[in-house]
């Protein structure tokens, strides 16, 4: 309701108000700053002659000037290139399992891919006597401390199925009848 009312007042006598604004005389522009009038003075021949005339005193001073430039010695910042690799990282081929198509082919030494991480965690879970932290660190070029943290904090999922005898069944109760 309020939108209709405001629209009526907004559109009231629109044509007359628009024609009144259009028929007004244009406002006079603000006066220009005196430096803007230099363009008109530049057209005069006296100023052109003054600009194009060579001054011998300035030419002799200019000939005496000699500029010699040297590049400053290059300084290497210690902490400046943290995001850029300072040397080429050594890469190793990944140990691919049955998920070969999903994994990358090369990783830097000291790192592992997702498929490798899942594989080594599963191997350690199934055979912890064979796949010890030392063997995993040697096999995948990792630090022993990082492997110990990996084995401690990351555990692959296990699927457990409960036999039917141990499942608790919800005994249904007969609904009470309303009288």
TrEMBL record:
Using the UniProt annotation, give all residue ranges assigned to the region (Disordered).
16-44
Which spans does this entry mark as compositional bias, Basic and acidic residues?
17-27
GO-annotated biological processes: mitochondrial respiratory chain complex I assembly
Which InterPro entries does its entry note? NDUFAF4
Q: Source organism's superkingdom?
A: Eukaryota
Q: Which GO terms describe its cellular component?
A: mitochondrion
Quaternary structure annotation from Swiss-Prot or TrEMBL? Binds calmodulin. Interacts with NDUFAF3.
Write down the PANTHER family for this protein, in alphabetical order: NADH DEHYDROGENASE [UBIQUINONE] 1 ALPHA SUBCOMPLEX ASSEMBLY FACTOR 4, UPF0240 PROTEIN
Which family does the record assign? Answer: Belongs to the NDUFAF4 family.
Q: What is this protein called?
A: NADH dehydrogenase [ubiquinone] 1 alpha subcomplex assembly factor 4
What organism is this sequence from?
Answer: Chaetorhynchus papuensis
């Amino acid at each position: 309701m309020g939108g209709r009312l405001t629209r009526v007042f907004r559109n009231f006598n629109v044509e007359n108000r628009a024609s009144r604004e259009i028929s007004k005389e244009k406002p006079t522009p603000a006066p220009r700053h005196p430096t803007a009038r230099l363009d008109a003075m530049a057209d005069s021949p006296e100023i052109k002659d003054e600009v194009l005339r060579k001054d011998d005193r300035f030419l002799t001073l200019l000939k005496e000037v000699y500029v010699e430039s040297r590049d400053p010695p290059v300084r290497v910042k210690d902490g400046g290139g943290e995001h850029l690799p300072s040397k080429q990282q050594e890469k190793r081929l990944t140990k691919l399992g049955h998920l070969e198509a999903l994994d990358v082919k090369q990783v830097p030494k000291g790192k592992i891919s997702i498929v490798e991480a899942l594989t080594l965690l599963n191997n350690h879970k199934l055979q912890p006597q064979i796949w010890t932290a030392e063997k995993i660190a040697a096999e995948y070029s990792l630090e022993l401390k990082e492997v110990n943290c990996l084995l401690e904090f990351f555990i692959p999922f296990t699927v457990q199925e409960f036999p039917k005898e141990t499942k608790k069944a919800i005994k249904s109760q007969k609904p009470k009848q309303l009288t």
